[in-house]
């Protein structure tokens, strides 16, 4: 009995040592694969690594993976016409990702690669159930060995080329969603507003500075109508931005028939959030202005003729807010609906 009691802790210690050793081996293997990919990337002339089947199996079937591997399966141009332009688009995206600042990149290393297959690779094609090319698949970092297994056509990790086509914006959205990165996405058909604003920024700053100087020197800043006009100006521009982004574009995300949230709107999420925040802040500013007009006599003294001005300002604010709410009430339900995709 005493020997049995002594053997228990010894066995637990041995099992712990074995488990720890196994983790070290797996961790060392994953680190070795990461180091090999980094070396291969440094020696490559392109940001898209050209992998053989053996290299693909080694890097993808490794568990745990401390990196994300975005692989495009391609073939000769004679058998796959869209493969060449799609590979060219992937190379541009990979180069753009490499030039991103660290704060906009994924926390895990990301590698872009291509793998050319042929009808002679029947065993490999059967193992991953590949029946067509091109395929763009994201093998994300993880601790489980979930490959080799058939590539799921309906998986979020599989770029839906039949639905989205070879469009840089859609492919960037796919990469951003799979890697939590922030590749810039430009809306199709949109005027590049930001570059124009940057180009005329000195003129805008001079104009704003001059307007502030005139407002202070003339004492116009003491008049409530001036502040009301400024707030209404911001309100008009913010409504215009909200109208453009929320009504004329597809929604940022919808829920498909399988209950999965799909992000496919052509636009960066930060831009959508910023425009929504702009509209909200403007509406709050107008509400605060109404309260000031009604409650603080030093803002709008109750003298002869001033009450009529105050009532007119309040009525204009009320009409503007009602118009905004009516617009969203009519238009938004048409776009925020379940998509059959």
TrEMBL record:
Q: Which SUPFAM superfamilies match?
A: Thioredoxin-like
**Signal sequence, renumbered to the chain:** 1-27
As for membrane topology, the entry says: Multi-pass membrane protein
Report the main location listed first in the record. endoplasmic reticulum
Query: What are the recorded Gene Ontology BP terms?
Result: protein N-linked glycosylation via asparagine
Cellular component (GO) terms are:
oligosaccharyltransferase complex
Domain of life (superkingdom): Eukaryota
Where does the sequence pass through the membrane? Answer: 196-218, 225-247, 277-296, 308-330
Subcellular location(s) per record: Endoplasmic reticulum membrane
Keyword annotations from UniProtKB, A to Z: Endoplasmic reticulum, Membrane, Signal, Transmembrane, Transmembrane helix
InterPro entries listed in its UniProt record: OligosaccharylTrfase_OST3/OST6 (IPR021149), Thioredoxin-like_sf (IPR036249)
Q: Which family does it belong to?
A: Belongs to the OST3/OST6 family.
Q: What does this protein do?
A: Subunit of the oligosaccharyl transferase (OST) complex that catalyzes the initial transfer of a defined glycan (Glc(3)Man(9)GlcNAc(2) in eukaryotes) from the lipid carrier dolichol-pyrophosphate to an asparagine residue within an Asn-X-Ser/Thr consensus motif in nascent polypeptide chains, the first step in protein N-glycosylation. N-glycosylation occurs cotranslationally and the complex associates with the Sec61 complex at the channel-forming translocon complex that mediates protein translocation across the endoplasmic reticulum (ER). All subunits are required for a maximal enzyme activity.
This chain's protein is named Uncharacterized protein
């Amino acid at each position: 009995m005493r020997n049995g009691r002594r053997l228990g802790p010894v066995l637990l210690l041995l099992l712990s040592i074995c488990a720890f050793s196994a983790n070290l081996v797996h961790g060392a293997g994953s680190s070795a694969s990461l180091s090999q990919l980094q070396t291969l990337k440094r020696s490559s002339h392109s940001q898209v690594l050209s992998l053989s089947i053996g290299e693909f199996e080694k890097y993808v079937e490794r568990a745990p993976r401390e990196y994300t591997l975005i692989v495009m399966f391609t073939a000769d141009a004679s058998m796959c016409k869209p493969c060449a332009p799609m590979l060219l688009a992937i190379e541009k995206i990979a180069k753009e990702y490499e030039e991103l600042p660290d704060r906009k990149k994924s926390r895990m290393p990301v590698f872009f690669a291509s793998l050319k297959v042929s009808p002679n690779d029947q065993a490999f094609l059967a193992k991953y159930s590949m029946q067509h090319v091109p395929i763009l698949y994201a093998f994300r970092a993880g601790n489980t060995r979930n490959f080799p297994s058939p590539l799921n056509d309906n998986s979020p990790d599989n770029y839906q080329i039949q639905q989205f086509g070879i469009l840089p914006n859609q492919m960037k959205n796919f990469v951003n969603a799979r890697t939590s990165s922030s590749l810039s996405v430009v809306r199709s058909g949109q005027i590049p507003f930001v570059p124009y604003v940057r180009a005329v920024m000195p003129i805008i700053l001079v104009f704003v500075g001059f307007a502030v100087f005139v407002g202070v020197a003339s004492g116009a800043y003491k008049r409530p109508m001036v502040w009301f006009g400024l707030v209404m100006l911001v309100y008009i521009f913010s409504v215009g931005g909200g109208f453009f982004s929320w009504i004329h574009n597809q929604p940022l995300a919808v829920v498909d028939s399988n209950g999965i949230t799909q992000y496919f709107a052509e636009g960066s999420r930060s831009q959508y959030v910023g425009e929504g925040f702009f509209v909200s802040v403007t509406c709050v500013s107008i509400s605060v202005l109404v309260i000031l007009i009604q409650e603080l006599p030093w803002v709008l003294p109750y003298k002869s003729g001033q009450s009529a001005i105050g009532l007119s300002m309040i009525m204009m604010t009320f009409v503007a807010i009602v118009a905004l709410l009516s617009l969203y009430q009519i238009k938004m339900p048409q776009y925020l609906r379940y998509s059959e995709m």
